[in-house]
Write a structure and sequence with these properties.
The protein has helices spanning 14-21, 36-42, 44-52, 67-79, 93-103, 124-129, 137-150, 163-170, 197-203, 212-215, 220-231; strands spanning 4-8, 31-34, 57-63, 84-88, 112-116, 155-157, 175-178, 207-210. With 232 residues, the protein is an alpha/beta fold. The chain has one domain (4-231): Aldolase class I (TIM Barrel, Alpha-Beta Barrel). An 8-stranded parallel beta barrel has the order 1-2-3-4-5-6-7-8, surrounded by 6 helices. It is globular and about 45 Å long. The structure holds cytidine-5'-monophosphate.
Length: 232
């Protein structure tokens, strides 16, 4: 699997998204992430648009429901020809297996399927006191990643600082997709556990998801090229 930089297109409209992507030279088609905000605003048409323009698409909708519902939803997303989708590992191994089944096309091909372990916004305290999960957060992350692997998924979304322990538990071929990336000379914004593209590469991330360091840069194309240069 080739390392790549995925740009988080956290825009609220098609117009803003295309205005941003139009800044890139004609031959440059970054891998993009479409999240809930953009998808709920514009629907499947935005996915078709970006695919038609030549972008790979990670559709970040984090499905979590009963296995049958997730399986049917995944079938629809697979027909949209996305390149990567995700589910919450908390939905259980049975739900992840159902997701994989729904995603697999009659010819055997399918988008990459990635699990969210614990959201990086969930603290160990909230996990233990509110959700009554008694284990430590790192043990939970490793267990959820192992469950995802057991279900046949391709990898997990995690903090770049967690990528090493996930690889250790699940094998080098199990993908780690890591947000929380900042340049060494830039602001952290609201991210807490961050690292640079170069360090993410050293730790073993396969894909870095980068939003504001590129989308809010004065020169987004230069910021994207810098990410590629440091990471790929
Ligand atoms: O702007 P920034 O680089 O912080 O954007 C990171 C992207 O990755 C956002 O779309 C955010 O929702 C997403 N993400 C994250 N942390 C996670 C999972 C997803 O920052 N644990």
């Amino acid at each position: 699997m080739n390392r790549d930089v995925i740009i988080a297109c956290d825009f609220s409209s098609r117009e803003a998204t295309l205005e941003f992507l139009d800044r890139f030279p004609a031959g440059r088609k970054p891998f993009v992430k479409i999240g809930m905000e953009l998808f709920y605003a514009e629907g499947p048409a935005i996915v078709r648009d970006l695919k038609a323009r030549g972008h790979k698409v990670f559709l970040d909708l984090k499905l979590h429901d009963i296995p049958n519902t997730v399986k049917k939803a995944m079938k629809v997303l697979s027909n949209l020809d996305v390149d990567m989708v995700n589910v919450h590992a908390a939905g259980t191994v049975a739900m992840m297996r159902a997701a994989l089944e729904g995603l697999t096309r009659p010819d055997g091909t399918r988008p990459l399927l990635i699990a969210v372990t614990q959201l990086t916004s969930t603290s160990e305290e909230a996990m233990q006191k509110e959700l009554l999960i008694g284990a430590g957060i790192n043990d939970t992350i490793v267990k959820y990643a192992s469950n995802a692997r057991e279900a046949g998924l391709d990898g997990v979304v995690c903090s770049p600082l967690e990528a090493g322990m996930v690889k250790q538990a699940c094998g080098a071929g199990f993908l780690t997709i890591t947000p929380g990336i900042r340049f060494a000379d830039a602001a952290a914004d609201d991210q807490v556990r961050i690292t640079t593209p170069a360090r993410a590469r050293e730790i073993g991330s396969d894909f870095i998801v980068v939003g504001r360091p590129i989308t809010a840069a004065a020169d987004p194309v230069a910021a994207y090229e810098r990410c590629l240069k440091e990471f790929v």
